[in-house]
Amino acid sequence: MYGLRIWRREAKRSTECRRSEPMFKVIGAGLAIYVCYAAVSGSVYAKSGISGRGVLREESPTYFWVVIAIYAALSLALVLLF
């Protein structure tokens, strides 16, 4: 009887996790769209600590592409891992 209660509790947790999966996929897809838009437009918002700043490709290309790569990796992780 005790094992059945643990199994039910674990089954409930796994269904709760499955309900949140589409949310992460939608967030990851939205972030991927933003990454494509930022790469084409040449401007991306980089969050750093409490505040953030806009980064332009013409002003600092290395930092711009680093931010794009980090956002792209986060997007892939949201879609594929969660």
Assembly state: single chain
The value of Rg in angstroms is 19 Å
Number of strands: 2
Number of helices: 2
Domain count, please report it: 1
Estimated structural class? alpha+beta
Main beta sheet strand tally, sense and closure: 2 strands, antiparallel
Order of helices and strands: HEEH
Note the beta-strand portion. Answer: 5-15%
pLDDT < 50 stretches: none
Q: What is the mean predicted local confidence, pLDDT?
A: 85
Major sheet strand order: 1-2
Determine the N-to-C terminus distance: 33 Å
The dominant shape is: elongated
Approximately how much helix is present in the residues?
over 70%
What does this structure look like?
73% of the residues lie in helices and 15% in strands. The radius of gyration is 19 Å and the shape is elongated. The mean pLDDT is 85. It is α+β, with helices and mostly antiparallel strands.
Summed up, what is this model?
The chain is of the alpha+beta class. The protein has two helices and two strands.
Descriptive labels:
82 residues, alpha+beta, two-stranded antiparallel sheet
How is the secondary structure organized here?
Elements: H1 2-41, E1 43-48, E2 51-56, H2 61-80
Antiparallel strand pairs: 1-2
Helix pairs in contact: 1-2
